């Protein structure tokens, strides 16, 4: 059974930083690309960042490029999202996700992802 468990969310002031973690189990982690998504109240879930199974390739939404960094530690079955220069519009529930198939592309379309965590709340106050 695949499990993805996010942690690290919280309340931070405008301009602050947070690091999210997502611990994976039940899958051969090093063979899966991974992604971070977020969903704000009343809005659709949107892509934030993706990383290839090796960690050698990454992709970011334009809205977070230069502020957020996705990384992974395959020895720990964990991915991270370092979020700097946070803005109130970054407030959302953040989810990590894995595609349904090994070595699948870490694209922006949430329909490509078959496994999801429960989410962690990030709130940025102005």
Descriptive labels:
single chain; 126 residues; mainly beta; seven-stranded mixed beta sheet; four-stranded antiparallel beta sheet; 11 strands
Descriptive overview:
This protein has 126 residues and is mainly beta. It has strands at 3-7, 10-13, 18-25, 34-39, 46-51, 58-60, 68-73, 78-83, 92-99, 113-116, 120-125. The radius of gyration is 13 Å and the shape is globular. The mean pLDDT is 96.
Order of secondary-structure elements: EEEEEEEEEEE
Low-confidence stretches: none
Number of helices: 0
- What is the number of strand segments? 11
Q: How far from one another are the termini?
A: 40 Å
The percentage helix is: under 10%
Shape: globular
Cα gyration radius (Å): 13 Å
Mean pLDDT over all positions: 96
Strand content: over 45%
Structural class: mainly beta
Instruction: Characterize the largest beta sheet: strand count, sense, and whether it forms a barrel.
Output: 7 strands, mixed
Topology:
Blueprint: E1 3-7, E2 10-13, E3 18-25, E4 34-39, E5 46-51, E6 58-60, E7 68-73, E8 78-83, E9 92-99, E10 113-116, E11 120-125
Parallel strand pairs: 2-11
Antiparallel strand pairs: 1-3, 3-8, 4-5, 4-9, 5-6, 7-8, 9-10, 9-11
